[in-house]
Structure formats: C-alpha cells, structure tokens
Amino acid sequence: MNAMSDKKKSPAAARPTSRDVARLAGVSQSTVSLVFGGKAEGRVTPERREQILQAAQTLGYRPNSSARGLKLGTQKLLALGVPNVSNPYFASVLKSVIGSAAANGYATVLINTGEYGNDPERLLLSLDAHAFDGMIFWEASWTARALEIMPTSVVVVDGDSSADADVFIASDVIVREMVDHLASLGHTRIARVGFDLEANTFRVRSRAYREGLQAHGLTYDARREIEVPFGETSSSRVEALLSQADRPTAFVCDDDLLAPLVYRAATRCGLKIGESVSVVGVGDIELASLLEPPLTTIAIPTQSLGESAVDTFLRKRAGQPTTVSTVQTRLILRDSTGPCIA
C-alpha cells in the first residue's frame, strides 16, 4: 500500500503542471498562465515567453483543456492559422471563415503561425491544440510535420502542389498570367518585387517568374529580382533599378502591398505608372483600387476560399471523403498597366 502511495506521488509519474514549468523557467506561475492563456502580448517579454515555452517543451507539459472547459463552458472551436496577421488579405479570409464556421456552430480563433516558425510542437504547447475541434493552416511546408502530431482535423491551404493541399492556390499559374499580360503589352524588361520570406508561396512565385520570362524568350536578369522584408517602407532598391539605363518597364509584385514601393520609386524617378512603368499585383485587397492609378492585380477570392476550407474541415470532422479544391483566380485590369513606350 505504501509503495503504491509513493508511486502516485512520484514526480516522474505525475503529469507536469504549470507550477513545474514556472519553477524550471524561473518565473511566477501567473506568468506561465498568461503565456498559455493567450494573454502574454504586452505583458510578457518575447525572451521570457521563449524561456517558458522551452521549459514546457522540456517537461512535456500540456495545458489542461478539461479544466479550462469547466470554467468557460462547452464551445466548438476552429483555429485559423495564417503566416502573418498584419497582412490585410488574411483579414478578408478570416471574415469568410468566421461566417462559414459560425453558420455551423463553430467559433473561430485566429493564430499567427509566423510566431512559431517551423516548430509545430511549440505551437501545440502554446495553444493546447486539444481545445480545438479543427485547424485551418496556410503553408504545407509548415503543416506537413504538424499533421503527424496534431490531435484535431487539419485543413491545409496553399501547399507546394495540389497533392499537398486541401484548398490549393496555384501560385505558379498566377505569376505566369502576370508575365503573360505584361509581355502581351510589349514589355521585355520585366522585374519582380517579392517578400524575403521562407514561405513556400514566394519560392514558387520566384521560380514561376523565371519560367514565365523564358516562355516568352526573355532573358532573366538577377538585378531585376528584388526581395524585401515584410513591412518594408523604403523604395531605394526599386529606385536604383529604375535609374539604370536599361531599366525595367514593368513589374510583377508578389503582393498588392508591394506595389506602393514601385509607385513611390517611379514618382521619385520622374516616371508615370501605367505609361512609363507598368505594375501588376496579387490579392486585390482594398488598397489595390485606392492607389492612383488603380492597380492591375490577380484577385484571389477570399469568400469562396474560406467557405471551401470550412467545408473541407466539416467533411474531415464527419469522416467523409474530401477532394482538393482549387481556388479560381482572375486578372483584374486597371490603369497601372499599359503598352510599353520605353
């Protein structure tokens, strides 16, 4: 009897608690609660948060979702994980997912997966994935490993190929259409501005840009391919490109958010968008129609995308077969593109 009692009290046999995590991380238990309760922003430094997550990972700690459920009541939850919550495109996706999920009795929680890099285990530790009925994630390169350890139904959006995704966005087709449009207007010196991110989407678009040039017999020039950090506000690199004697006459931008860099650079170089320089973006966010002149762009319909993702989740949740849904994009012609006059 005593041996059994001792075994129950053995630290090795007991499930790690938030108190254990706090002790190992050298912080208070309330600080641990802030991190795993999703209330750390502005209250716990990134360094301290990292320290707590490392301690939890070492101990194999998992938040107690059952206890949380007793406090909050029963709620069906669907997580939407996007690589950057600052991108307004994902705000439109979120709106669609929230509406579709709510119509089926689910509340939606937004997760900024970029904070967790390529470490799905850390995401699971921080979020307590058991609390969710399902998850919708961008980037198959990130979710491939997560699928193996995720305890819920997972929907992958925008994978490496249609074989890796449940909802597929053909990034290569998008860029080829952009290059085709500019080449049809007589442009032969076409540049690309993309984000300097590890996301597979932008690697695919870089490759498709080169292939698109080759398809039209155009020479690839590394000087004309610029990648900038997300949130970049300096247009100096584009200005330098437009100051060259053999400057580009057209740009493909991996995201509508990058187009203002080209607009600003063109203005500073005394060039007019739509005449001296043509620009095409991707996304058709609200900004695209507000620029002057309005931006020609590839629209990726967020409403149907969100609906397809939620529908796929519901089918997986019910154990029903699913098929890959390919998002239908379209080129929207506005005044930022025109015939080459250089």
TrEMBL record:
Record region (Disordered): 1-20
A GO molecular function held by the record: DNA-binding transcription factor activity
Domain HTH lacI-type: from-to ranges: 16-72
Keyword Membrane in annotation: no
UniProt keyword list: DNA-binding, Transcription, Transcription regulation
Keyword Acetylation in record: no
Protein name per the record: LacI family transcription regulator
Lineage: Bacteria, Pseudomonadati, Pseudomonadota, Betaproteobacteria, Burkholderiales
